[in-house]
Amino acid sequence: MFNPEIFFQALVNGLLMGAVYGIAAVGLSLIWGVLGVVNLAHGSFIILAAYIAYVFFSAAGAPPLLTAPIAVAMGFAVGYLLYKGVGRKVVTLDPSTSLLFFFGLSLLLSNSILNIWGPDVRGIPWLIQSLELGGTRIPIARLIALVSTIISFMLLYMLLQHTYYGKAIRAVVANRVGAASVGIDVDNVFAISMGIALGVTFFSGTMISLVNPFTPSSGDGYLMYSFASVVLGGVGNIIGTLLAGIFMGLVESLVGVYFSQSISPAVAFIILVIVIMVRYRGGR
């Protein structure tokens, strides 16, 4: 028998987690859309940021909400320097070689995290209370993550739409040669784009540390959800990617409630395969 309270609880849980999935996927979408490479180390960067938030909380009692700006700055620096160091060479390689590079980077990061922090499950027990509205429980930590995600996404959108660097990024995506011909430093735009993308990725990692426990291998799941969200929402389309992430969260929650939590990721990816098949057929 249909129970509206259970249904609305599933919707709320899906929305709260889906927003985090969405903002995590936006970082992958930016690198893929601007640089044309798939960052297979994306999940490892997310979990690295989660562990950074854990260290700040354990050592100084700083909640992830306060750690987030620091993580964004660290992510930007890592992305910018990574591009300046090796990224400019990677983007010129064929797709299979660039995938191997990022796969190797993912292994390096995940094994480094494992060696430093060990295999134990970690979490940040901050604001574990819940609000109750009409029989629906809303975890305060997840609500804060949702609001923070919305604010950060709005700031990112404004950056990309209304600043010089945002317009330069869009110009490079539209026509790399044309952008260079009007004086835009394409190489620097790529470096800044990678910095912004990893800044967003590190932000999502701090939000994930707030709402979910994690281990060094947790990044694999977030990479898969991010990849699915980017494909569903459109490569380089940050609004579509965010909405697709929310959709993934809703599917995961509803299937977990009405069927089984263990099969919810499979259902989401079945939908992804159907979308890919429809798009491919339409492009033939």
Structure write-up:
This protein is an all-alpha fold and 284 residues long. It has one domain (4-283): ABC transporter involved in vitamin B12 uptake, BtuC. It is built from 11 helices and 2 strands; from the N terminus they run ααααββααααααα. The protein has helices spanning 4-35, 42-60, 64-90, 95-117, 140-162, 164-174, 176-181, 186-211, 219-233, 238-258, 264-283; strands at 130-133, 136-139. A two-stranded antiparallel ribbon has the order 1-2. The protein is globular.
State the gist of this model.
This protein is 79% helix and 3% strand. With 284 residues, it is an all-alpha fold. The model has no long low-confidence stretch (mean pLDDT 91).
Name some characteristics of this structure.
284 residues; mainly alpha; ABC transporter involved in vitamin B12 uptake, BtuC; two-stranded antiparallel ribbon; 11 helices; 3% strand; globular
Assign an overall shape: globular
Read across the widest sheet, the strand sequence of neighbours is 1-2
CATH topology: ABC transporter involved in vitamin B12 uptake, BtuC
Rg value: 19 Å
Report mean pLDDT, rounded to a whole number.
91
SSE class: mainly alpha
CATH class: Mainly Alpha
How are the elements arranged and paired?
Layout (H helix, E strand, L loop, with lengths): L3 H32 L6 H19 L3 H27 L4 H23 L12 E4 L2 E4 H23 L1 H11 L1 H6 L4 H26 L7 H15 L4 H21 L5 H20 L1
Antiparallel strand pairs: 1-2
Helix pairs in contact: 1-5, 1-8, 1-9, 1-10, 2-3, 2-4, 2-8, 2-9, 3-8, 5-6, 5-8, 6-8, 9-10, 9-11, 10-11
